[in-house]
Amino acid sequence: MRIVSYNLRKHAAGHELADIAQTYDVDALCLQECDSEALPHELHHLRLADATRANRLGLAMYVRDERYEVLDTQVFAVNKSLHDRVLAPANERLLAALLRDRDNGERVLVGSFHAAPLTASNSLRRKQIAAAHDGMRSLAPDTPAIMVGDFNYPWFISGLERRLTTAGYTLNRTDEPTYLRYKYFTGYFDFVTSTGFEVQHVDVLPAGASDHRAIRLDAQRVVPDERAA
Predict the structure, then answer these.
(1) What values do phi and psi take at 23, rounded to 5?
(2) Helix/strand/coil (H/E/C) assignment for every residue in 127-192
(3) Torsion-angle region of residue 130: left (phi > 0), alpha (psi -120 to 50) or beta?
(4) In the chain, N or C terminus with fewer CB closer than 10 Å?
(5) pLDDT tens digits along 94-126
(6) Which residues cross the membrane (predicted)?
(7) Rounded (5°) CA angle 62-53-40
(8) Whole-angstrom Cα distance, residue 99 to residue 101?
(9) CATH code linked to domain 2-221
(10) Residue 51 in 3-state DSSP?
(11) How open is the CA angle 13-146-68, to the nearest 5 degrees?
(12) Burial environment of residue 131 by CB neighbours within 10 A (0 to 12, 13 to 18, 19 or more)
């Protein structure tokens, strides 16, 4: 499953989406900071699965319609930061979709996630990530799940990784910074968390109109070893 995640910087990079969908042959396109009213229903082979509407920094997801059937979608409001309380509504931070592979019938969960900004603490963001994972699991327990997006977590990533490993999730990130807004401040903001998937590498796409660079990954379901059973 090929996934691209992109923070559009208040929809400034919205005009790039059609080219990204086609150029990188995307199966699922997960967006943050998008304007849901400005999103087309289709992008080449991708169909809009769902988008938030109450959030001023919206989330959206496109899915390859010929391969995946969208069984369910849900938006989750996780733990609020001070930023959320002052600039509400901005607490819808996860859009999750339950998909069924039309070829083999297998179900997968995909989430587009946007954590609270750097004005919040890492502790709060960790709670948001955990709540987002719980929200995805509530749609379909024991289903392979992958969550991508802007985690706003540029420092002390090893501590986050340890907590995720304990919870049964794997953290993957890029080899290059994904945030490029300021000349002297770059960072690794856009991550991938997964359970039941193997992600070999996360690539960074060329910079566009956003202050984030999109990330691309290929996720393969982990097949349980029948001998272990």
Answers:
(1) -65, -40
(2) HHHHHHHHHHHHHCCCCCEEEEEECCCCCCHHHHHHHHHHCCCEEECCCCCCEEEECCEEECCEEE
(3) alpha
(4) C
(5) 999 999 999 999 999 999 999 988 888 899 999
(6) none
(7) 40
(8) 7
(9) 3.60.10.10
(10) strand
(11) 80
(12) middle
Which residues are paired to 5 by β-bridges?
30, 215
> Domain locations in the chain?
2-221
Position of tokens 């002297």?
184
Lookup: tokens for 91: 């607490």
**Residue 87 pLDDT class (50, 70, 90 cuts):** low
Of 13, 8, 6, 10, the C-alpha closest to 56 is 10
* CA angle in degrees (0–180, nearest 5) for 72-73-79: 140
Cα gap 206→89, rounded to integer Å:
31
Contact between residue 114 and residue 101 where contact means Cβ atoms under 8 Å apart: no
pLDDT in tens, 128-171: 999 999 999 999 999 999 999 999 998 889 999 999 999 999 99
What letter would DSSP give residue 115? Answer: -
Structure tokens at 188: 């690794």
